[in-house]
Amino acid sequence: MCNFAHDSAAVVCETGTMVDWDNLRMFLAAVRAGNYTAAAKRLRIDRTTVGRRLDRLEHQLGVPLFAQSEEGYYPTAAGRRALEVADQMEQLMDGLAAELGNGAVAKRGHLRLAVAAELGAELMADLAAFATIRPDVQMTILSSADPAESVVQRKSDIGLCLADQRPDHLRGRRIGTLRQAGYAAKGYLARGAGGGAVQEQEWIRCSGWSHLPVMRRWDAMFPDDVRVAAYVDSWSALRSAVEQEIGAAFLWTFVADRCADLVRIAPLDETVGVDLWVLARDDVPMDRPLRAFMDDITVRLHARIGAAAGG
After folding, report:
1. Which residues, 6 or more positions from 283, have their beta carbon under 8 angstroms from its beta carbon?
2. Domains, the chain, ordered by start
3. Residue 262: how many CB atoms within 10 A of its CB?
4. DSSP summary character for residue 199
5. 207, 205, 216: which is closest to 246 by C-alpha?
């Protein structure tokens, strides 16, 4: 068991070892950032200081906190335990600061978010809502062909991912199942383009830009002799082409069903879908911005997607 020392920013353990909280904090930052250089940038100090502090922490604890593999450095068993304690302390200190801060503005955090390219900008309203209630969290939003891999490679802190199951080395929450159906703009239908039958419509198809198997399954629903109005190479172009009345296309039901100018013209296949996940690395403690985002976006998107399910 460890307790705070009253006369310094330190923790005193039952072994009698005094551990400097600043050293633990830098260890936590180094693991979250992935390397000393990135940690130094986040902490606004130089890399040498980070390395010196972590050497001091290992000396205080008497055990190595990092081991090396072909992929790079990773926390040892002792390092993982130190991470747990550091994460708990950070949450306690954040809570204390919020309780005693008398409304003081919290230090601004930063969050790198990867969003599946197949979603385009469909979730931007939800991200904007989070930004409104959490102005202390600055976001960098990246469109990614594989947001899960982006998180694993530390290019992003968290990802909104489309996957049939949770990928290895990640933790998080399943938000719900997304499905697609055929839609066309009212103006396109009003002028009688493509005739009345579904098979007679002129369709807009994706030209192999997605790596998701489920996207290929939706595209495979088209017969070989289907009439194609256009091919596009992104989700944003697909939706825009439908709205501009170029032709019909398969769109996400949770989005298109709420668009007054779009009409569902093809039935929903309940057997075809893909799960939406919010995921972070499973070996890195989540910081305040990450925890806040995961909690908020899970509730927000679950309500939105759940309300559209089965439509």
Report:
1. 31, 74, 75, 80, 169
2. 2-100 (1.10.10.10), 109-178+274-308 (3.40.190.10), 180-264 (3.40.190.10)
3. 22
4. G
5. 205
The average pLDDT across 244-254 equals 95
What confidence category does residue 226 fall into, taking pLDDT thresholds of 50, 70 and 90? confident
Helix axis angle, 21-33 to 77-100, nearest 10°: 110
The 8-class DSSP code of residue 248 comes to: B
Q: Name residue 206's beta-bridge partners.
A: 232
Give the position of tokens 């075809």.
272
Higher-confidence residue: 218 or 163? 163
Q: Is the pLDDT of residue 94 over 90?
A: no
What pTM, to 2 d.p., does this model score? Answer: 0.75
Three-state SS at 300: helix
Reported as type and span, the H/E element at residue 279 is strand 274-281
**What CA–CA distance (Å, rounded) separates 179 from 306?**
12
Rounded alpha-carbon distances, angstroms, from residue 201 to 193, 216, 240: 7, 20, 17
- Summarize pLDDT for 159-192 with one digit per residue, the tens: 999 999 999 999 999 999 999 999 999 999 998 7
